[in-house]
């Protein structure tokens, strides 16, 4: 950022020998490269995730796409063009119903319907606190990486059970009135019988009148000004839960949280600045979900979401993604470059992870040329093979391919120097192959800005 003198400092660990895959559960079939980030600027991280890197805490990793069992492709959504799908609308309406009426849906495995439980909740709010305290409180057990993050905490709620009052069979029978008259001769009040000819004539006249009325309606519509049916925007669905007469109150507060990203501010950036932000979801004074997002120069990147299993029926993972897309659209008003929502990795070979492709329009990152390609053009290739190059231009290559390793920055003995100087000081050093690998993975732009720690 302008006027910012911060540096990114990393330790590169190289590629691993394979570890257990959390998606296909195969042993030692998941391969990646990694590095530990002591500190990182938001611009460097933006450039890294645009080359397929991703952070988990301070550990930054990049899957070895042509080798790993379940290739993980970076995915981004065009937030400004996003329109919620039918399933997204259903999730938003479900949450709105809970906020406005206090009815919590049943768990998905319990089928359709609404629990007959009314929650007496004064507020449902989102606040933040340092990430460290939550991490220590939750530990690392049972974390779920979707498009977001982690959760813990129990909640206790007061409730009233709605009592269904149903009449007994005897009471029901007593309330039923017999509407079938007993035949006891001709009914004097009944109209006289009519001839079939008269009935046919009446029906014909009635049909002609209906046809005439229909023609009149069509004629009036053809002369009326045309109106295009505009789809209901995401913000309208969300605002439905913010009515003053709602049973619960929904609000957001965002706080900086602990991460390797340095908090930064820019004149043309969002008022809250760039960095990592913590969102806590509170229900009746108890925490039920925690979300972490990174606000970067051109995107909001979803990191983690943890949620309490008691509220799984509210689809908090998908709901928080929709809220974060809406938040990205708000930030774009303040910063024109910030227009994308990054959902982490899309894994086509894992059916449970394909849901990220439903947030459209979206792109996948080509693992060879590092250009973004519309997902509709990518999925046919992934149907045939787990690993695929999406950019079909045979002459296209890595735009940030390494051209001069000597210009890579190294932090050695508390001194900042180019790799060419470092290699002369370290006579006989044998880390050139590792440096070549590191530089090719982060790209020329980052290799000339990031400080690589050398012991």
TrEMBL record:
SUPFAM superfamilies: Acyl-CoA N-acyltransferases (Nat)
InterPro entries named among the record's database cross-references: Acyl_CoA_acyltransferase, Arg-tRNA-P_Trfase_1_euk, N-end_Aminoacyl_Trfase, N-end_Aminoacyl_Trfase_C, N-end_Aminoacyl_Trfase_N
Residue ranges of domain N-end rule aminoacyl transferase C-terminal in the record: 244-366
Compositional bias (Polar residues): 219-231
Glycosyltransferase found in the keyword field: no
Composition skew (Basic and acidic residues), residue ranges: 201-214
EC number of the protein: 2.3.2.8
GO terms of molecular function: arginyl-tRNA--protein transferase activity
Pfam families: ATE_C (PF04377), ATE_N (PF04376)
Domain N-end aminoacyl transferase N-terminal, chain residue ranges per copy: 19-90
Region (Disordered): 201-232
GO cellular component, one term: cytoplasm
Catalyses which reaction(s): an N-terminal L-alpha-aminoacyl-[protein] + L-arginyl-tRNA(Arg) = an N-terminal L-arginyl-L-aminoacyl-[protein] + tRNA(Arg) + H(+)
Entry keyword Transmembrane helix: no
Superkingdom of origin: Eukaryota
PANTHER family linked: ARGININE-TRNA-PROTEIN TRANSFERASE 1 (PTHR21367), ARGINYL-TRNA--PROTEIN TRANSFERASE 1 (PTHR21367:SF1)
Function summary: Involved in the post-translational conjugation of arginine to the N-terminal aspartate or glutamate of a protein. This arginylation is required for degradation of the protein via the ubiquitin pathway.
Family: Belongs to the R-transferase family.
Protein's name in the database: Arginyl-tRNA--protein transferase 1
Gene symbol of the encoding locus: ate1
